Amino acid sequence: MSPGAGTGERFGKSAEPLLARHENQREKMRISLSKILKVNGVPEGIRTPDLRFRKPLLYPAELPGRGLSTPAPTFGDRRATHYSRKRALRSRAIPVIGWLLASAPAMAQACGGPLAPIGAAAHVRERLEIAFEDGRLAAQAGLAPFAQTARDRGRFEIARTALEARLSGVSLAAPVPLPREDRWGRITGHFHTGPDNLGLWLAATGLARVAPAPGDACGHLFLDAEAKARAAKLGLWSDPYYSIIAAENVAALLSRAGEFVLVEGRIARLGQTSARFYLDFGQARGVDLSVTISKQAATALAATGVRPESLPGRRVRVRGLLEHRPGPSIDLTSPLALEMIGR
Question: For the chain, how far is it from start to end, CA to CA, in angstroms?
C-alpha cells in the first residue's frame, strides 16, 4: 500500500489536496536541484553515477584521451617516472655546478668559505643591492639598512657612489654553493672583488654599519672592522648623529624610532613570558628601553656562553631596529647584536 493510499483511508478525502501539494513541492525542489547541479557541478568529493550531474573537470579519467579503460599506473611505472625526473633534474644541475667550480679556482676566505665568479655588476640599487648584467640581484649580508630620513638618504648616496666606483670594470665572486634567492629575488651573501669582502670593506671605511645575521661566520670580523672605523671617525662615524645612544636618554631614543641604532646601557631587570625574555634598561616599563629576545634567539645566545638570566646588572651594547611598543624596544636578532662592554 502506498503512503498516499494509507493516509487517504485513515483521514479521508480531506488529506488528498495536502498530499498533492506536498508531492508538487518535492518535485519542484528536485527540478531546482537538478538545474543547480547542471550549472555548477557536483561539489568536489561527491561522486554520483548520474551523468546529468557530473562535470568532466571533477573526473579527469573521463577527459579526452583518458578514458575509463586506461589502466592505472603500477608502482613500477610510478617509480620509473620518479627516477627519470630525478635524472633529468640532475643532468641540468651538474653543468651549472661544474661551471661554478671549474670556471676559476675557488678562493678560500677566512669566514666565507670557497668562492667562484658570478659576473660583472651593472649598477648599485636601493639598499646597496648589486644588479648584475644578467638581471640578478645581490644583497651583501651583515649590513644595516638605511632609513628613509634625509640624513640617512645622504649617507646612502655616498655609500652607493663609492660602491659603484669600487665595482666598475671588475667581476664579482660569490659563495659556493650560491645562496638561494629570497622572496624579493635577491641573493643574500658575502660577495667579493678579488680577495676583498665587499661588506667588510663598507664597514671598515665607515660607509655602512653592521647588522650581524644569525649564524654568520663573518659577524665578528664585521664588528671588529666597524669598531676600528668608529674609533677613527671614518665615514658616517664622523657625524655625531650616528654616535652610540645612551640607554637612559629616552628623548634621543624617541626621536630615532624606525631607525637602526646602537645603544649602550646597564640592564636593570629581566622579564620573561612563555615566548620571550625582556631586558629592561630602566624600571619604568613602556618608558625605558627594552630589548626583546625570543626563546629561539635566547638558545642561540646561550650557545655563546651568555644566558639572559645572567644579564641584569651588566653593561651592554645592543644594535637593531628601534621600535615603540609603546616604549622604545629593540628585537635581538643575533647573539652578535649584544656585546658585553663591562660589569
Answer: 98
Q: Contact 292/285 with Cβ under 8 angstroms?
A: no
Sorted by where each starts, the structural domains of the chain and their CATH numbers stand as: 3-62 (no CATH), 115-238 (2.40.50.90), 244-342 (2.40.50.140)
Give the contacts of 83 (CB within 8 A, at least 6 positions apart): none
Whether the predicted model's global pTM rises above the 0.90 cut: no
| pLDDT, tens digit (0-9, with 9 covering 90-100), for 78-128 | 555 544 544 543 443 333 233 222 333 333 344 767 888 988 998 999 889
The x, y and z cell numbers of residue 269, run together, are 631587570
More confident residue, 1 or 312: 312
Collapsed DSSP state (helix, strand, coil) of residue 44? coil
The answer to whether the CB of 263 falls within 8 A of the CB of 330 is yes
| Amino acid code (one letter) for 107 | M
In the beta sheet, which residues pair with residue 116? 174
Q: What pLDDT score was predicted for residue 112?
A: 61
pLDDT in tens, 229-239: 999 999 999 99
Taking the C-alpha atoms of residue 11 and residue 15, their distance in angstroms, rounded to an integer, is 6
Residue 316 is which amino acid? Answer: V
Neighbours of 45 (CB within 10 A): 6
Do the Cβ atoms of 199 and 142 come closer than 8 Å?
yes
Cell numbers linked to 198: 665587499
What lies within 8 Å, CB to CB, of 294 at 6+ separation is: 275, 276, 331, 332
